[in-house]
Amino acid sequence: MDNIKYFFRGTPDDYIFSTGSTIHWIIVLFILLGIELIFKYRNELREDKYKKIFKTFIITILAIQQIVLYSWYKISGYFTIHESLPLYNCRLAIIFTIFAFNSGKKFYKNICCYWGMIGAVLALASPVLDPFRFPHYTGISFFVGHGLLLWSGVYFLVVEKHIVDKKSLESVLTFTNIYHGIIFIFNKLTNSNYCYLNAPPFSIDFIDRMSQFKYTFIAFSVFNISITMFYLIYKILHIHLLKKRTIKNMFKVY
């Protein structure tokens, strides 16, 4: 019982997770291994049996992760309106990913691919965790949530062959900017920093010296540029793979 209480404790340790540490590399390599397995067994995952198992696994784990996280915020007393709402891009992307697996709607898949994969890569490369020393639920939740976001995006693109086209780019950019506009106002009203529109997740000297207007403009721009870059990278890889398949098929003919 004491171990469980410690795992879900609400008193922070003022601990900062060490980026590039051994545990960080182990977690990243494990997530990369999962991506490799999705690529390797993509044909098997298209079969109804394995498709159902994979979808059930992702939905179940993400749902549990979300329910336990927000229950912990409430019960532990750690909840604050400034940090604990599901308003960050990755938190919302997780919810949309669950919707995507349940409904199959393209818009939800687009959010998973654009927001989820971009956000997961950035978060896993430079983790910003709650100040609790391991073992603690928030650390597990962070890596499980972002890891499964990345796996889900890869699954949609590689297994289901979800197409990221110009229309999806336009819809995600429109949604992103409207959403961020609303969040910017919410941040101002509540003195919060959701989506890091008011300040970066960690202190950087030259950014800290920027005016609020300049930083927020750059933050909006970075989101738009990242989404556009994701689209362009996808298109380049997609064209490359199509050419590779065409050449392979030509050799088969001859």
In short:
Helix content is 74%, strand content 0%. The model has no long low-confidence stretch (mean pLDDT 91).
What percent of residues adopt helix (DSSP H or I)?
A: over 70%
**Unreliable runs, pLDDT <50, ≥5 residues?**
none
Strand segment tally: 0
Amino-to-carboxy terminus distance: 69 Å
Quote the average pLDDT.
91
Beta content comes to: under 5%
Q: What structural class should be given to the helix and strand makeup?
A: mainly alpha
Number of helices: 10
The rounded Rg comes to 20 Å
**N-to-C series of helices and strands:** HHHHHHHHHH
Give the biggest sheet.
Answer: none
The dominant shape is globular
Description of the structure:
There is one protein chain. The mean pLDDT is 91. It is built from ten helices and no strands. It is 74% helix and 0% strand. It is globular, with a radius of gyration of 20 Å.
